Amino acid sequence: MSLSFEGRVVLVTGAGGGLGREYALAFAERGASVVVNDLGADTKGGGKSSAAADKVVEEIRAKGGKAVANYGKKFGLALILRDRSFARTSDLDWDLIHRVHLRGSFLVTRAAWNHMKKQKFGRIIMTTSAAGIYGNFGQANYSAAKLGMLGLANTLVVEGRNYNIHCNTIAPIAGSRLTETVMPPDLVASLKPEYVAPLVLWLCHDQCQENGGLFEVGAGWIGKLRWERSQGHIVRQKNQPMNPEAVRDQWDKICDFTDATKPTSTQESMLSFVSVLSQVESEGGVEANPTAAAASTSGINPAEAVGQKLPPTSFSFNHTQCILYALGVGMSTKDPDHLRFLYEGHPDFSCLPTFGVILSQAVLMDGGLLSVPGINIDPTQVKKQTHYSISSESPLTSEATIADILDKGSGAVILFDVNTYQDKELLCYNQFSVFVVGAGGFGGKRTSEKAKAALPAPQRAPDAVVIDSTTRDQAALYRLSGDWNPLHIDPSIAAMGGFKAPILHGLCSFGFAARHVLKQFADNDPSRFKAVKVRFVKPVTPGQSLQTEMWKEGNRIHIQCKVKETDAVVLSGAYVDLHPAPDGGGLQSELVFAEIGRRIRDTGAELVKKVSAVFGWEITKDGKSAGQWTIDLKNGSGSLHSGPYSGKADVTFTVSDEDFMAVVRGTLDPQKAFFSGKLKVRGNIMLSQKLEVILKDYAKL
């Protein structure tokens, strides 16, 4: 399928000839409306003419395309050179080149920026040069300006990411007015601009998700460049001055690019320095490889690491730690329901079940991971996901095993299974998924059957939404439960990590969301809590409000957590599994509806075509209403709703939980159930004939 730019407006600067002309013609040929900008200046920056831009516009229109000319200097760029050796470069030579190339790029982009933000779409291509990347004799002014454009592009990537504005940079080599002065004529003729334009078109298309890339391109070849950094070496000791002799003595190690890392952001870069501070302060010695957690390829050896056990850790706690954790995840005496988690004298005093995460995280935080053969990680540079299930609240010893290692290309994922025991009885199971930046590419598998899978939320309105405010001191309070990372309390460390302020612990947001589920669907009964899975997406700033959206499907509650003020998703693919109510109030039919819901997600569109109706179910138990379900197979791709339904069902069935299960299992004929009064129907009774499509094969337990 060819790439189309219908409905897009493209501004090409320097489009009167060379590369710019080729871009303009190519965009127009594929349906774009093109603004052809060219000042008509010569290669020294002198003169002015509209002829070049007008000619290209005529070419485009002659082929049926849409284009207008622009000769404006305010937003235009002229492709000029003023080459001099550095000693002979005048102020004018320097300023003119920077004004045209760097400031011109700034002005053009600034003019378009707010329009791109408003429409939530934009594609920007900066043109640097090999002279800017590598340097070139006689082009100090040009080299500096061109590398400055790359720095501008990198910042636009960061600021435009939330608005679907992508910025990439190319370093093309092609025959043009500029290159014909420094290349042989036959080479200029061979390096055609049409060998560059396809890359520009792809990077500008809305299908392309590349962002922040730097590419060399020419002669039909395209290559991507990236930064590389040596593992480096710490050359100072705690409470000791740093001296040049130490730098000299470790120079070979400082410059050794074996197992080099590839940082891609300021945050990744700065976290290495946080690691250095931690190592120097805690150990007081000279440590090599502070950037090991950016994880070079040889730092991950799956064959050696998988199956290895970390040193066990012990954890003792009493009611004080339980109460402190409850406060840390936002519980308050303002809510009477919270008192059972905050007051040790409450007759139903309990520990929040998510406290189980605290029991196991020490295995990673105590540095045990660093002792595993085949693994070299700095915990400050990893991203964690969590799954855990719990059956008690009194752990003693946690043991962790590396379950698997996955190759994700840009990094490695290490799966940890952590079992917590009291004596020899298993009390709590955690699975941590640790993403190690830059450690991929070792040829390993990308998926694992051992990983607890995240699940998407149902495609319908949530069954319940809870909004809860965090306090300015939420992170300061939560860290007292054992996560002492200064990123969450020290503004200077947060700044080094690329954050404007200390951020909230991801596991604190997780605690908020889990207790929302516990209250909404389990009456704050910890014994109902079976398991939880979350995937951390973005950080939260203390003081922001968390909005937890919940979908009930049987005993599984799907959850998604957002920052209310920004609508940014912070937890996704998450769910909580609950045990049935201990008083026997759990419905067997919930399992059937959960399975129906899953099948609707998989084949809903097909079912909508076959059925085209909305079915309501009222499930009773002991003569009382015990559950409501609505199966919508009329709208969209189908959906399943638990609880009250805002729309109108075409037909509604009322049946006991026991009789419903008998119908599903085939031991009770639906017609006999209807005539005997066990199955009551209101609405369009003829639609009951389509029940077989829903229940047969779609509700196997």
Automatic annotation (TrEMBL):
Biological processes, Gene Ontology terms: fatty acid beta-oxidation
GO molecular function: 3-hydroxyacyl-CoA dehydratase activity; oxidoreductase activity
InterPro entries cross-referenced by the UniProt entry: HotDog_dom_sf, KR_dom, MaoC-like_dom, MFE-2_N, NAD(P)-bd_dom_sf, Peroxisomal_Beta-Oxidation, SCP2_sterol-bd_dom, SCP2_sterol-bd_dom_sf
Pfam families associated with the record: adh_short (PF00106), MaoC_dehydratas (PF01575), MFE-2_hydrat-2_N (PF22622), SCP2 (PF02036)
SMART domains: PKS_KR
Annotated compartments: Peroxisome
Domain spans labelled Ketoreductase: 8-162
Protein origin, superkingdom: Eukaryota
Pathway: Lipid metabolism; fatty acid beta-oxidation
Transmembrane segments: none
Keyword Kinase: no
Keyword Transferase applies: no
UniProt family annotation: Belongs to the short-chain dehydrogenases/reductases (SDR) family.
Protein name: Ketoreductase domain-containing protein
Naturally occurring in which organism (per UniProt): Scophthalmus maximus (Turbot)
